[in-house]
Amino acid sequence: MKGEKKTKIVKSIRIDVDKCNGCRACEVICSSFHAIPKYSSNNPARSRIRIIREPLTDIYVPVYAGEYAVAECAGRDKYTIDGKEYEECAFCRASCPSRPEFKEPDSGLPLKCDMCEGEDEPLCVKWCLAEALIYEEREVEVDDVVEQAELEIGLDSLADKYGMDSIMDAVARMADKG
Ligand code: SF4
Ligand code: SF4
Known about the structure:
single chain; alpha+beta; two-stranded antiparallel sheet; 4 helices; globular; binds iron/sulfur cluster
């Protein structure tokens, strides 16, 4: 069935790797904003942005938490930057069964950047004094029916993996967050 066209705002953050100085303020504010209750703690292990660090050569690469992947992918990528080879999947954004990144440390539930829903600008962007993170918005046309189908597939996958009780518990805690 063909869906109706509508428009939505796509939010994105452009990353200027050359400007990142590895201060990790973005990890601190992200985990603090998403703490329950809000701002009650900061634990970068819960952050939805990670800084891949190579302090000896001053290389710092911010990576945002992306989609939840129900199974690990068949491909692998390796990066070499300034002669250093990084681990497989080091820069991947997925919350994936093959590695611990972008998962809540206690529940194991996947973490995904939500662009600091409710804020006028993502907090990691505000806190990045080096201006390595640049917030951008653009309007695009989307197909309503396709979006709904994707949402249902995503929920089914999470429920299969973690059980519906865990999902409902996480949703309840998010609602409490206020
Ligand atoms: S706040 Fe900015 S400069 Fe600091 S680690 Fe994050 S992206 Fe890099
Ligand atoms: S936009 Fe918000 S949720 Fe996403 S990484 Fe930055 S602080 Fe975290």
